[in-house]
Write a structure and sequence with these properties.
Shape: extended
Number of strands: 0
Oligomer: single chain
Helix content: 25-40%
Number of helices: 2
Strand content: under 5%
Length: about 50
Amino acid sequence: MSTHELTTSQAIRQRRSTKTFKNDPIPEAVLHELLSLMQDAPSSWNFQPTRV
């Protein structure tokens, strides 16, 4: 994964709603990295129902 950093205004301006996705498989290393990041992400109202 890249370490490209965005400012808050860049993140807001570049935000998009994705309606279609490719059917390409996600490499296992990327999937593990995403799952690891998900565990550190904040949750709505600090609910913590996700277990990995």
